[in-house]
Amino acid sequence: MQEKVLDDIDRKIIAILRENGRSKLVELSKFIGFTSMGVKKRVAKLVERNIVNITAMLNKSALNLQLAFISVNVDDPNSFTRFITHFEDCPKVIAAFTRRNETSKIFMLVFGETNGALNGLLDAVKKQNGVVDAELQSLDDVHYMPHLPIRVEKMLRDSPPCGARCISCIYYQKNNCSGCPTSPEYRGTI
């Protein structure tokens, strides 16, 4: 049997912070029954142990964003590493997932302002060396979690990390894509 990492107090603190990450220590202390200093120490310990990360997340619906999974098959472990590294700084990739002990399949949760933006990203994925095939699966609704960890910090660049040029993209030219949030041509909501 595994040792518990979180106790009831930790779970209560996390539940409140998930509801409102801006909760004040005084509010937390009233709910938990600890002093403000006691709660502060608990929160600091959770952060220090890398169990929680208090961060800002964006509301997909408020920004009119569309989500999709892109599933990617690559031909070998070197292609896998190259692919993961190539898209590491892409601002439209929310997260990349892999299966245990498998280095040929990658699942990416991505966003775009339009279907054209998602299809443009899919095209960019398919052009990568070592990609055998890739498929886009659009998502309609997000249940349980309207706010998503969109990596806005990856948008603080002067140009797309992949080197793409929006003005040469057919989706961008036909106004089906707002472009990369890092490009000077970006026309999106973020």
What can you see in these coordinates?
With 190 residues, this protein is an alpha+beta fold. Helices cover 31% and strands 19% of the residues. A four-stranded antiparallel beta sheet has the order 3-4-2-5. Strand 3 and strand 4 (105-112) form a beta hairpin. The protein is globular.
In CATH, what is the homologous superfamily of the domain at 62-150? Lrp/AsnC effector binding domain/regulation of amino acid metabolism (RAM) domain
Enumerate how many helices there are, as a single number.
6
The overall pLDDT, averaged over residues, is: 91
Helical residues, percent: 25-40%
Let me know the largest β-sheet.
Answer: 4 strands, antiparallel
Q: Based on Cα principal axes, name the global outline.
A: globular
Run of helices and strands: HHHEEHEEHEEH
Quick synopsis:
With 190 residues, the protein is an alpha+beta fold.
Topology at a glance:
Blueprint: H1 8-19, H2 25-32, H3 36-48, E1 58-59, E2 66-74, H4 77-86, E3 93-98, E4 105-112, H5 115-126, E5 131-139, E6 147-148, H6 170-173
Antiparallel strand pairs: 1-6, 2-4, 2-5, 3-4
Helix pairs in contact: 2-3
Features:
190 residues, alpha+beta, Arc Repressor Mutant, subunit A, Alpha-Beta Plaits, four-stranded antiparallel sheet, two-stranded antiparallel ribbon, 6 helices, 6 strands, 31% helix, globular
